Amino acid sequence: MADQTEGPSPSRRRMLQAALVLPAAAAAAAVGGASPAHAAYNGNIKRSRVITRARYWYDRNVDYNGSSYTRDWEGDHTYRQDCSGFVSQCWHTAGSYSTRSLPEISRQKPWDNLKPGDILNKAAAYPNGHVMLFEKWSGEGPGLIRAYELTTAVDGMRCKTYAVSDLRARGYVPRQYHRIVAG
Description:
- The strands form three sheets. A seven-stranded antiparallel sheet has the order 1-9-8-7-6-10-5. The protein has a two-stranded parallel sheet with strand order 2-11.
- Helix content is about 25%, strand content about 30%.
- By secondary structure, the chain is an alpha+beta fold.
- The longest helix has 14 residues, at about 45-60.
- It has one domain: endopeptidase domain like (from Nostoc punctiforme) (endopeptidase fold (from Nostoc punctiforme), Alpha-Beta Complex), CATH 3.90.1720.10.
- It has helices at about 10-20, 25-30, 45-60, 85-90, 165-170; strands spanning about 5, 45, 65-70, 80, 105-110, 120, 130-135, 145-150, 155-165, 175, 180.
- The model is unreliable at about 10-35 (pLDDT under 50).
- The protein starts with a strand and ends with a strand.
- It is globular and about 40 Å long.
């Protein structure tokens, strides 16, 4: 069934808010290891790392606020807390792109070739533009996908099932980051 939404677990959010510990990346760096979401800033990035970075903001339940910024996994860079800032953080780009500028660092691709870490972009000025990060093809039926998105102040961060036909009709275009690599 399309249009199912999954939000971060309230218990996870409470645990994360209550815990005043170093981010996992800082802890890994302290013992000499790299975090599972580590990727060179503005460099090539594996698809699995893009999804790990998406899960990081999702698990933290980052609030939507287009005029605020929050830190990435490593804690070294900040990204705008909106849909395109979320994608920029997942791709670990140099700064936050907009729905209109994401095409500058990505290429259009066929719907049937979507892979984890690709995006579904509706390149338009606020409030008509939006971008989602493709997670996977949904096992709930043909033509259904799961996507992460940072939506509005009300809906916030979520992972939702969509019908490809609905996204196409609403003007979304599938795109692949030019620095994404297999893995």
